[in-house]
Hints:
35 helices; Tetratricopeptide repeat protein; cytoplasm; TPR repeat; coiled coil; NB-ARC
Amino acid sequence: MQSSERERTKLTPPNNVVFQGSANFVGRQHELCLLQELLQQPGAVAISAVSGMGGVGKTELATQYARQHQADYPGGICWLNARESNLAAEIVQFAQLYMNLEVPQQDLRGRQLSLTEQVHWCWQHWQPTEGLALVVLDDIIDLGSCREFLPTAHRFRVLMTTRLRNLDTNIEEISLDVLSPEEALQLLTKLVGERRVQKEEETAKLLCEWLGYLPLGLELVGRYLAKKPPHWTLAKMLQRLKQQRLQDEAINRHQKQLQQTLSTAQLGVLAAFELSWDELDPTTQRVGELLSLFAPDIFAWEWVESATSRLNWDASEVETAVGQLYERHLIQWVEDKSGDFDDSYKIHPLIREFLKLKRAASEQVDELKQDLRTNNITTVIASEGKQSQPALFRSACVSPMKRAFAETFIAIAKTIPYSPTRRDIESVKDAIPHLAEVAQNLTDAVSDENLPWAFTGLSRFYEGQGLYAIAQPWLEQCVSVVQSRLGEEHPDVATSYNNLASLYKSQGRYTEAEPLYKKALELRQRLLGDEHPSVATSYNNLASLYKSQGRYTEAEPFYKKALELRQRLLGDEHPDVASSYNNLAYLYKSQGRYSEAEPLYKKASELFQRLLGEEHPDVATSYNNLAGLYESQGRYTEAEPLCKKALELQQRLLGEEHPDVATSYNNLALLYESQGRFTEAEPLLLKALEIAEHSLEENHPHTISIRKSLKSLHDNR
């Protein structure tokens, strides 16, 4: 090349940005503006980093910035691949190819220059000699390995992309998240066409959601669909993704195919995630596999620690794991607004799918290793009785990781009381999706003795809020699963009948509840004998059903048998005895036997307060019941403060939308109506009806009763 031509080339700003930038680029305007603000600051060399998980669009953002702001960098733009290349050699090569510099190999004394010294020479002799220059380091995996090669002159601006958080305190970082649902739909629309999306708009939204609004996933699927004929619907694509998960070719395109496009997406989703996976320690990878068992919801890191402690994993290595996973954006920290957990995290849905694949691969290896042991167990099983086979097979076939996960959430389920307060509900709410994962998919990992607890915990959580329709399928599934695993002749089967019957009773489905209550009683008597607390519970529950139906003569002997048995087995100082006093008193009150009801109501209330404390739903119920008795006797001045105490306590403990709160509003309203205080009664009945219709449905006996009370009030005014 002639000297004049070399000089002319030197004056042309060098630029090796290979990507054109997506024509379908959406969103990110805030990030682009922030980058410009950070990189254009005067003074020392400005260094900014764009961090985020694989596939979130870091390279695309850097490309868009470089293309849109090319005029702001008259000194040129140098794009460097920081992951795979020898960075120093790449810088020297850039100087040679794009600035036509003859990089010296020796100094003036003939000493051989190191590669680092050659790099510094390139920065010092950058062409053109004036104007800001942008250096992009794409996909940094180790700042230490490239620190000595960074330019130091004030004219340079350095933009890094990385999967790592917090590269350095001296580097301004922009954390890149997934697209918003609206932006994701906009991107998909640009890729597949507006007509296609409008035709299946709801499916398009579900497709974006399944892809977790990840730009890489959306681009790959969108480009795949764009090549398909019109009959290839979005619904078909979504169904196939759900079936084939990350293995589907739409999001797992081969690298050679992607390199033949102008897109910045040069990797499929699997390959993009694999880069981060390969950087993890072995223990961190195992922790990642454990995380794939969690539901796609917020989880507390203490639950991970609980599971890993059951696996006897080294606690310090597990602590290191959370740092590695967080640093590489494989988990995201979530602020817990309730303040119960400072260690709440979530996983992107496609990352979760990736971790599930890794766990499945590890389980296959573990199964191969245990083949000999399993064969030995099978030999033992053949010589054992039939009853022992299922447990032995499960012990051999279920991975320890799944057992540890299941045990962690079964332990949480056991902490949910029969009548949970709002505080109880709040303390376990984040664990419920993961407990549901155990009940739905991991019952094989639950021991026989703990099997009902997954379903019982879920039902208590939902029943405790009056959400009976949500609780119902869990209790119905409990009956099915427990029967299948343990056989018909087992106490836990009786308990599952009893729990489902109680739910049906709460829903006003009395004819469905009765046969279940009877089956539970007969089974308990046969398996446990007559002298057992569970038999007393069955007597009590069957009596309660009869009382709700107005079958008082059938209810009374069962209530009395329950009370006598509980007193004999549990002693007088027990909450179940207090419940029996309360229930028998309620029956007497319903029959107009007020003098017999009052002492029992008082004993129940005193006992509840002493045993459970003032802040308990059963105490509120006892206030309500005693107030109802006084109201029936015309003792209004004694009834009113009890009604108000019951309402205030239930509002505080259970929340405004609970069916028991509706009952308290109704009771206070009826008290006012009895005194002719109609203007005070009406708004309370309206509130009661609103809550009942929402939580109990319109045809529930309690809802119908409140509606009748409201009609009666209007008729009497």
